[in-house]
Amino acid sequence: MGLRKADKKNPVAAFTLCLLLGATTGLASQAQHASPHAARPLSSQKLVARMTLEEKIGQLVLLPAVVQGKEVTLSQDQRELVREGKAGAILNLVGAEATDQVQAIAIRESRLGIPLVFAADVIQGRNTIFPIPLALAASWNPSLVREVARRAAEEAWASGVRWTFSPMLDVSRDPRWGRMAEGPGEDPYLASRLARAWVEGFQGKGLGQPGTLASCPKHFVAYGAAEGGRDYNSVEVSDHLLWEVYLPPFLEAIRAGAPSIMAAFVSLNGIPAVANQKLLRDLLRKQLGFQGVIVSDWGALGELTIHGVAKDRVEAAFKALRAGIDMDMSSEIYLRNLGSAVRAKRELEALLEEAVLRVLEFKRRLHLWEHPFTQPLPPPSASWTKLDRELARKAATQTFVLLKNEGGVLPLSPTIRRIALVGPLFDNSETPLGPWRTRQPQSGAVTLLEALQEELGDRGEILTAGWPWGQPTQRDKAKVLACARQADVVLLSIGELVHMDGESASRATLGLPAGQEELVELVASVHKPAVAILFNGRALALPELVNQVPALLEVWFPGVESGHAICDVLLGKESPSGRLPVSFPRSVGQLPVYYNHRRTGRPPGQMFTSRYIDSPVDPLFPFGYGLTYTQFQYGACQSTPRSFHRREKIRVGAWIQNVGKRPGEEVVQLYVRALSGELARPIRELKGFQRIYLLPGQRQWVEFSLQAEDLGYWDPEGVFRVEPGIYQVWISPNSQEGIPGTIELLEG
Ligand code: NOJ
To answer: Which residues pair with 499 in a beta bridge?
Structure first.
């Protein structure tokens, strides 16, 4: 791991230190508002001084609630652990009644009355299920993400949750990895902008305020680079790549005030993250300045013996604490073995106390002593539901990416009367909810069929032909053909079932599953206008589909308002404005395919260049790509001044005009490339973006401000460097198009 020189001016370190000090000195005022049942709010240090070894370890134990039939609850044994002060936090217990009941045990029956913190994976919302994170990344809209996170936090807060294991900030360049669905896509800059938005959205006006959740960016770090795209597989990543690609979103989340971080399951360059002292203590704490709580991922401490880095569970406990894991999620390694480890190695005591202090400070920042129990949030939940549904619908429409629209099939003409809905997903209400809706109370998503029926009423006719996930029969096929023949337009609802994405859902192929290629061929043979509506949680490789249908709309997993949002876009009430946050490859053999790859000495061309003899090198659809219902024209990229010194700023802008016939939103993107320097740098790097809305004929000057730091890079030692020289700059609609301008960063 490369070490960055200790940065005395590190604002993150200074900020967190203040919080630690502030949290301790502000305790007197907290005491005045303390719950009558809470322990006297001693300073954390005094509290630690009173704790037994078991009670200290208890604060580091994160217990998972257990599923009993349809209920998620705490077992009698677990309640007993709470009573004995041997649990610090509870995962997955949700609901005012359930959490208050268990909190009462902690506050009133345990010796020191230390409150518990209730945690949950609030990933796509709590009651209202919003689009999956990858889809939200496709909105390229940090304000929208902030709004979604804020509402999700309010909903979860009302049901007792105070800590969410979100956002997932794993940059991923390999769509075989099913967890691409949960993350921000392939680019560190976009991921960093969204990281801040997630953290700010969850944490609102400040930790501990009503309706806010503590965020927990995860999974530290480079989990998205699991070899072969196989979940839980080991990761080998150079220090340079770590700094350039995988760390930036975490750094931004820390700067935005994230008070906790989750360590990954996987090993990085040979050492599992939860036993990796260099990673957690040297890199995360010292270099990035993070002083919050580090929690393990589920069961990860128990896996240290399986990785083969601990001979037994006591050694696993020792290595995890030494590495810097403050809380053990669900493995019970700390609960059952940390005591023996500490008794055997007394030097661990200091590390244990530090970890306990961090957990107690975290709880103080959440105001758990003053407000251990749930409180209702005004206004009443009925009107929330309406607002939430509206937000879910608006969010979904902004995430859809129009990949193809030959002949202007979309938006559908108002004269269309007969619409055929074919494929396996038009009446599926589970899949659009995405992989993280588990254990969430709300019913299924509005299906495309339901929404279209609502929309058309008796002004049109809907014909339907499903498609099985097993083997289609001749009857299935005949029905598809008959339906397509009778219709004015065919809407194909295709893609992945929800369980094909998310954790433990890696794929070795990236085509359409369940024989859906045959379905597409059948529809194509009828030569009717057809629109493929693609549900999925990753980039797919679909060159045949793209050739066979005139229009293709990527809708990801849109959440509870799925059908309504899709109708809004199909019928032209909303214009599609999402852009790809990941490159779509042509085949699995091309992987990895990502836009910001390094330059080679032999760029793809003829013989003896970096190419394939049987496939193009470039993606099917590049990062940043997406069409609208209108067309935008980009003027030349201009900069003022053309050259600048280190402490100056430069403005780079271009005229963008809506030259089509409809209003539309464009995501204007700024890319740079260094033409020379010590390292071979990426072919392009995203450095800014803006969403603009233009009426037909309207034009707008879109400008970005660049400073020297925007042109810099992290070297393999973790030192941030900015090199003088010539840089190319693009203002373009995606990562492949556009004509570059040049700017020069001068010496000195
Ligand atoms: C395992 C997942 O990797 C992590 O993202 C999640 O937060 C935990 N399980 C808890 O559910």
So the answer is: none
